[in-house]
Amino acid sequence: MSTRLFVGNLSYQTTEEDLRQLFAGVANVASVTVVTERDSGRSKGFAFVEMASPEDAQKAIGELNGQSLHDRTIRVDLARPREDRGGGGGGGGFRGGRGGGDRPREPRRERY
Fold this sequence. Notes:
Elements: E1 3-8, H1 16-24, E2 29-36, E3 43-51, H2 54-64, E4 68-69, E5 72-73, E6 75-78
Antiparallel strand pairs: 1-3, 1-6, 2-3, 4-5
């Protein structure tokens, strides 16, 4: 069973291949994903590395947490499960995402 690790404080120049080589020097790597901005494709400065076993994951944490990569001290820890983000809110903007302007208007009340 594989174990997913969080790798933080990465340089924006760090690639998946850089991480694969670093972690493969310690234990068996199943996959590497550098998290990027949706629009620009630029790294967000963290990644997930999936190790082949829980033992490999613990070995990687012990040997690589606090090590330097591209002049940055990286943080390596077990990844937390994603939390349920819920259904999200309605759309913003005009009328708060509650439909268009086809609704009949109520007459305005006069001010006192």
